[in-house]
TrEMBL record:
UniProt biased composition (Low complexity): 8-26
Protein name per its UniProtKB record: Anti-sigma factor antagonist
PANTHER family reported for this sequence: ANTI-SIGMA FACTOR ANTAGONIST TM_1081-RELATED-RELATED, ANTI-SIGMA-F FACTOR ANTAGONIST RSFB
NCBIfam families (alphabetical): ant_ant_sig
InterPro entries linked: Anti-sigma_ant, STAS_dom, STAS_dom_sf
Family annotation (Pfam families): STAS
GO molecular function, one term: anti-sigma factor antagonist activity
Source organism, top-level taxon: Bacteria
Region ranges (Disordered): 1-49
All copies of domain STAS, residue ranges: 61-161
Family the entry assigns: Belongs to the anti-sigma-factor antagonist family.
Protein backbone atom coordinates (compact mmCIF):
# COMPACT_ATOMS: atom_id res chain seq x y z
CA UNK A 1 0.00 0.00 0.00
CA UNK A 2 1.33 3.42 -0.91
CA UNK A 3 1.42 6.19 1.67
CA UNK A 4 -1.17 8.95 1.43
CA UNK A 5 1.47 11.46 0.28
CA UNK A 6 2.17 9.41 -2.84
CA UNK A 7 0.54 11.63 -5.40
CA UNK A 8 2.45 12.66 -8.51
CA UNK A 9 3.90 16.13 -8.06
CA UNK A 10 2.57 17.35 -11.39
CA UNK A 11 3.39 17.37 -15.07
CA UNK A 12 6.85 16.80 -16.46
CA UNK A 13 8.96 19.87 -17.07
CA UNK A 14 10.27 20.72 -20.49
CA UNK A 15 8.65 20.77 -23.88
CA UNK A 16 6.39 17.97 -24.97
CA UNK A 17 5.72 17.10 -28.54
CA UNK A 18 4.46 14.12 -30.42
CA UNK A 19 1.24 12.20 -30.10
CA UNK A 20 -1.44 13.12 -27.63
CA UNK A 21 -0.42 11.98 -24.17
CA UNK A 22 3.33 12.10 -24.85
CA UNK A 23 5.04 13.22 -21.68
CA UNK A 24 2.06 12.25 -19.54
CA UNK A 25 3.23 9.90 -16.75
CA UNK A 26 0.14 7.76 -17.30
CA UNK A 27 1.43 6.87 -20.75
CA UNK A 28 4.82 5.63 -19.50
CA UNK A 29 8.32 7.12 -19.56
CA UNK A 30 9.04 10.18 -21.64
CA UNK A 31 12.45 11.65 -22.39
CA UNK A 32 12.87 15.40 -22.33
CA UNK A 33 16.05 17.45 -22.44
CA UNK A 34 17.12 19.24 -19.29
CA UNK A 35 19.76 21.85 -18.45
CA UNK A 36 23.50 21.54 -18.89
CA UNK A 37 25.34 20.48 -15.72
CA UNK A 38 29.09 20.81 -15.31
CA UNK A 39 31.48 18.10 -16.54
CA UNK A 40 28.82 16.72 -18.84
CA UNK A 41 29.75 14.94 -22.05
CA UNK A 42 26.37 13.61 -23.09
CA UNK A 43 22.77 14.70 -22.88
CA UNK A 44 20.90 14.83 -19.63
CA UNK A 45 17.85 12.62 -19.74
CA UNK A 46 14.82 13.28 -17.61
CA UNK A 47 12.57 10.27 -17.35
CA UNK A 48 9.22 10.88 -15.75
CA UNK A 49 7.23 7.90 -14.54
CA UNK A 50 4.48 7.30 -12.07
CA UNK A 51 5.89 8.80 -8.91
CA UNK A 52 9.56 8.70 -9.99
CA UNK A 53 11.98 10.84 -11.98
CA UNK A 54 15.50 10.06 -13.25
CA UNK A 55 17.93 12.74 -14.38
CA UNK A 56 21.14 11.30 -15.81
CA UNK A 57 24.38 13.13 -16.43
CA UNK A 58 27.13 11.52 -18.50
CA UNK A 59 30.28 13.01 -17.03
CA UNK A 60 33.59 13.63 -18.78
CA UNK A 61 35.25 10.98 -16.59
CA UNK A 62 32.91 8.28 -17.95
CA UNK A 63 30.70 8.04 -14.88
CA UNK A 64 26.94 8.20 -15.26
CA UNK A 65 25.45 10.21 -12.40
CA UNK A 66 21.75 9.38 -12.11
CA UNK A 67 19.61 11.37 -9.69
CA UNK A 68 16.44 9.52 -8.75
CA UNK A 69 13.58 11.38 -7.09
CA UNK A 70 10.05 10.57 -6.04
CA UNK A 71 8.81 7.11 -5.18
CA UNK A 72 10.74 3.95 -5.98
CA UNK A 73 7.96 1.41 -5.62
CA UNK A 74 6.12 -1.39 -7.42
CA UNK A 75 4.96 0.96 -10.19
CA UNK A 76 8.24 2.78 -10.84
CA UNK A 77 10.91 0.14 -10.11
CA UNK A 78 10.41 -1.57 -13.51
CA UNK A 79 11.06 1.79 -15.19
CA UNK A 80 14.32 2.22 -13.25
CA UNK A 81 15.34 -1.34 -14.16
CA UNK A 82 14.54 -0.67 -17.83
CA UNK A 83 16.44 2.64 -17.81
CA UNK A 84 19.52 0.96 -16.31
CA UNK A 85 19.51 -1.83 -18.89
CA UNK A 86 19.01 0.57 -21.81
CA UNK A 87 21.33 3.38 -20.73
CA UNK A 88 24.26 1.55 -19.14
CA UNK A 89 26.35 -0.57 -21.47
CA UNK A 90 28.43 -3.22 -19.68
CA UNK A 91 30.87 -2.60 -18.17
CA UNK A 92 29.57 0.65 -16.72
CA UNK A 93 30.38 3.18 -14.00
CA UNK A 94 27.34 4.50 -12.14
CA UNK A 95 26.60 6.82 -9.25
CA UNK A 96 22.97 6.35 -8.29
CA UNK A 97 21.89 9.33 -6.20
CA UNK A 98 18.85 8.37 -4.11
CA UNK A 99 18.71 11.47 -1.89
CA UNK A 100 15.62 12.67 -3.76
CA UNK A 101 13.70 9.44 -3.13
CA UNK A 102 10.80 9.93 -0.72
CA UNK A 103 9.63 6.30 -0.64
CA UNK A 104 11.70 3.13 -1.17
CA UNK A 105 9.64 -0.04 -1.41
CA UNK A 106 10.57 -3.69 -1.79
CA UNK A 107 10.47 -3.50 -5.60
CA UNK A 108 13.03 -0.68 -5.51
CA UNK A 109 15.19 -2.70 -3.12
CA UNK A 110 14.99 -5.58 -5.59
CA UNK A 111 16.43 -3.38 -8.36
CA UNK A 112 19.29 -2.36 -6.04
CA UNK A 113 19.96 -6.03 -5.21
CA UNK A 114 20.12 -6.82 -8.94
CA UNK A 115 22.64 -4.02 -9.43
CA UNK A 116 24.70 -5.48 -6.61
CA UNK A 117 24.73 -8.83 -8.44
CA UNK A 118 25.84 -7.12 -11.66
CA UNK A 119 28.67 -5.46 -9.77
CA UNK A 120 29.78 -8.82 -8.39
CA UNK A 121 29.98 -10.09 -11.98
CA UNK A 122 32.28 -7.22 -13.00
CA UNK A 123 29.58 -5.73 -15.23
CA UNK A 124 29.15 -2.64 -13.09
CA UNK A 125 31.29 -0.38 -10.92
CA UNK A 126 28.81 1.60 -8.87
CA UNK A 127 27.95 3.42 -5.70
CA UNK A 128 24.78 4.93 -4.32
CA UNK A 129 24.28 8.22 -2.55
CA UNK A 130 21.94 7.80 0.41
CA UNK A 131 21.85 10.16 3.35
CA UNK A 132 18.15 10.17 4.14
CA UNK A 133 16.37 7.91 6.59
CA UNK A 134 13.76 7.05 3.95
CA UNK A 135 16.45 5.24 1.93
CA UNK A 136 18.91 4.17 4.63
CA UNK A 137 16.37 2.48 6.87
CA UNK A 138 15.12 -0.10 4.30
CA UNK A 139 18.71 -0.73 3.15
CA UNK A 140 19.78 -1.44 6.74
CA UNK A 141 16.67 -3.48 7.60
CA UNK A 142 17.20 -5.82 4.64
CA UNK A 143 20.99 -6.09 5.01
CA UNK A 144 21.55 -4.49 1.60
CA UNK A 145 23.51 -1.64 3.22
CA UNK A 146 26.28 -4.16 3.89
CA UNK A 147 26.32 -5.41 0.27
CA UNK A 148 25.94 -2.09 -1.56
CA UNK A 149 28.54 0.69 -1.62
CA UNK A 150 26.58 3.42 0.19
CA UNK A 151 27.99 6.97 0.42
CA UNK A 152 26.59 10.06 2.10
CA UNK A 153 27.54 12.44 -0.73
CA UNK A 154 28.09 12.58 -4.48
CA UNK A 155 31.79 13.47 -4.24
CA UNK A 156 32.50 10.43 -2.06
CA UNK A 157 30.54 8.14 -4.39
CA UNK A 158 32.29 9.48 -7.50
CA UNK A 159 35.69 8.95 -5.86
CA UNK A 160 34.74 5.34 -5.05
CA UNK A 161 33.65 4.57 -8.60
Amino acid sequence: MRPSHSQDSGPLTGPTSGPSGAGDPAFGPALTPAGTPHEQTGPVDTVGTSGMRIEAERRADGIVHARVSGELDLLSAPDLRKWIHEELPAPARLVLDLDGVDFLGSAGLSVLAELSEQAAGDQLNWAIVASTRVVLRPLEATGLAEQIPVHDGVDSAVSAV
